[in-house]
Amino acid sequence: QAAQKGGYDTFMEKEIHEQPYVLSETLRGRVDNDVRMDELKEININWEKLERVYFLACGTALNAASFAQDLFRQWVPACPSFALAASEFRYGNYYLNSDTLCIFVSQSGETADTLAALQLAKEKQAKTLSIVNVLGSSLARKSDCTLYTCAGPEIAVASTKAYTTQLVLLVCLMIALSEKLGCQPKDVSKLMADLKRIPEITKDMLAQQEIVKDYAQCLKDQKDAYFIGRRLDYFSVVEGALKLKEVSYVHADAYIAGELKHGPIALIDKGTVVIALATQEEVASKTISNIEETIARGANVILITTQYQDTHAFQKVLRIPDVHPALAAIPAAILLQLFAYYGAVLKGCDVDKPRNLAKSVTVE
Ligand code: G6P
Fold first, then answer.
1. Which active-site residues does the annotation give?
2. Mean pLDDT of the chain
């Protein structure tokens, strides 16, 4: 096992550090002046008639799916899209027909709830597309079309590299779909240029690991942590909170920054750990002023933001580089994964095999 860990202490640490490589593998041949996604031809659908899109997944993959739903809504506002926990899909009486596209996201391609959602979609003649990491897995075999993340084997129970490769592939897919539907993402040329830079950007994030390790010390005597963000940042902090609770057993909740004042702020006291993400320029300053409210109540805040925000009110700041807002979730994920990892190490947890969790859940 030590040899398999390639010099790292744990598989989780190794897999976090593999991200520059696996992201470039996942992007290989996909991005030029345009996004290349020939696999979409395998779906027998009249794109002009597409009525709605469902994103279905579980766990970390559901957080990637929710992120994609938000992008699709921004870029293709006329076509309704919904991200749903696959475990809920069969019981919700959702509208499905042959002009519906169901997109399944899964590392293993074997999660029972996601397979059951696929089964229902097929029964209702919906079109099916899977984003999967494991070659030839059940989801891949049973879908009309499969896009593979090239994350390689993910051994640690907590998903890291599978998640960021899902994000980058979903961004590519959302660009491809928006073009098919006659829409275009904002600043598409910057988006294309930044997609190619993603492996380099993730390397720069990993170089900040010692600072993150130092900031993670704030979890030492804490049982709780609160993660805050708006818009796309909200889905990133939901995943950041999931990662922390999975590996460190710190109770972690994620909130929409604008909702803080409607309840969660009651939980903030002297020393409460708050991790705030403010990468979306349109709303970043609003998130920052919400977080200043928590500082006024004694919170111990770590702020992750862009190069441009005024952060004079904050002592612990991590910066992500200038990148298209649709891609900011990837560098942010690296920092949040490192934070969860070092938090778990600090607490002496078995990082690779958290209690009660399985890598792949094959029961409903
Ligand atoms: C389990 C794992 C999670 C994973 C989820 C979905 O709960 O512990 O890390 O996100 O299953 O797995 P999948 O293979 O479908 O992505």
1. 359
2. 95
